[in-house]
Amino acid sequence: MAFFRRAFAALTAVSLYTQNAFVAEAVELDLTQPSSIRAAAKTIAGDMMAYYATNASGTVVSGIPGLLTYPPYYWWEAGAMFGQMVEYWYYTNDTTYNDLVTAGLLFQVGPQANYMPANQSKDEGNDDQLFWGFAVMSAAELNFPNPPADQPQWLALAQAIFNQMTQRWDTTLCSGGLPWQIYTFNNGYDYKNTASNGGFFQLAARLAKYTGNQTYADWATKVYNWLEQSPLLTSSYQVYDGSNSLKNCTDADQMQWSYNYGILIGGAAYMYNYTNGSTLWQTRLSGLLNNTDVFFPSTYGGKIMVEVACELNQKCDTDQWSFKAYLARWMAVAAQIAPYTAEGIMPKLKGSAQAAAAQCNGGASGTACGSRWFQTTSDGNTGVGQEMSALSVISANLILEVAAPKTAVTGGTSKGNPAAGTGNGETKNPLEGNPVTTGDRAGAGILTTLVLAGILGGAWFMVT
């Protein structure tokens, strides 16, 4: 309880900071000066955290540690936000929010310490759980301060999520892959999407690098190979959103989202690094990076990131406004751990950062960040995702100034548990997970068959 009291004291500090931020001018950014980048990041971090905790009494706006206010924010975006704040600390050394971030990450682990809280069962998908996994994996890699000894540890939490993903791997349809949803009673269980499978791939790759355990690398390769033979990843490295498993994944929703590319780029960069620059993973990483040009339209000089599927006509939903954050995050990681990519990546991160800062000149604070970076003044479309995207791309310009992610042999201090999430004390490293049964699928099919057409075609309808 003492730890959580410290965390709530930190909320008051957040309140005082964000109140001061309300009198600030628009964000200024000089990318040649690391101090200017850090100052801009600090302003935006304060504006973003104001959506989570703002009042003088030090309470969370939603009333529950680790949750943003719903609606409009689903559980997963809070995990993504905390992951961004771990990286904010890494880039800036600003400890203002550390206790707050730790408390949020720990409060949502659920009774089995695997990010499966019962009150999220109606909304939680595999990709949602994985975004919390990314956050705790970053905490382990970056040596974010470890939780108290009597609390779950960062690495063990990431391993728990990995182990659960292996158990959900479904070979009965589409020759493998993870469903979008975890529970059969949720709409979308029969949709195998890139975010879930790409997220599993990335988490496995990062665990391989951190621990040196080849089993994680084997799983990363297995999942990537499945994506490659599915319609979700083409031979020319175009990344599509998902596929209907009731049709045995014979076609795909061909919408291209920046976060799907970012997730795969992050995983491929870690595998390139883990394999000491293998030709295979260099080819894959380069192919994915080359296709990100779709998010940097030549109309805007080819160096400003745009969520082209929904941003130009302002049709993005609450989730989608945050997607640019993840492409920026993992492009930066690629530039750091696969250095040959930096020459092509950094100009895009610089151009996007300067454009994002120009958008951070609206709202009550005078620094609230809008969504459309190709405009020079705020479009007035603000929120957590917009702040996160701006914070991510601006902070990413410090990537070559900071140390590379730690591993267990290069100074990483987080304690792991290879058996976490398996329900027993033995290490479970299966290369075949427990398939979903026909009975399980039947329950999902009744609920989802009628809505799958909407899932597969909804994104196209939305943007047209």
TrEMBL record:
Organism of origin: Glonium stellatum
Catalytic activities = Random hydrolysis of (1->6)-alpha-D-mannosidic linkages in unbranched (1->6)-mannans
List, alphabetically, the InterPro entries matched: 6-hairpin_glycosidase_sf (IPR008928), Glyco_hydro_76 (IPR005198), Mannan-1_6-alpha_mannosidase (IPR014480)
E.C. number, please? 3.2.1.101
Gene3D superfamilies from the entry?
1.50.10.20
Region (Disordered), start-end ranges = 410-435
Question: Biological process GO terms, please?
Answer: carbohydrate catabolic process; fungal-type cell wall biogenesis
What broad taxonomic lineage does this protein's source fall under? Answer: Eukaryota, Fungi, Dikarya, Ascomycota, Pezizomycotina
Q: Name one GO molecular function term.
A: mannan endo-1,6-alpha-mannosidase activity
The cellular component terms of Gene Ontology attached to this UniProt record, alphabetical and capped at eight, are:
endomembrane system
Q: Transmembrane ranges?
A: 442-463
Top-level taxonomic group: Eukaryota
Localization terms from the record: Endomembrane system
Q: Any idea which UniProt keywords this protein has? A: Glycoprotein, Glycosidase, Hydrolase, Membrane, Signal, Transmembrane, Transmembrane helix
Q: Does the keyword Glycoprotein apply?
A: yes
Q: Which family does it belong to?
A: Belongs to the glycosyl hydrolase 76 family.
Q: What is this protein called?
A: Mannan endo-1,6-alpha-mannosidase
Tell me any Pfam family this protein matches: Glyco_hydro_76
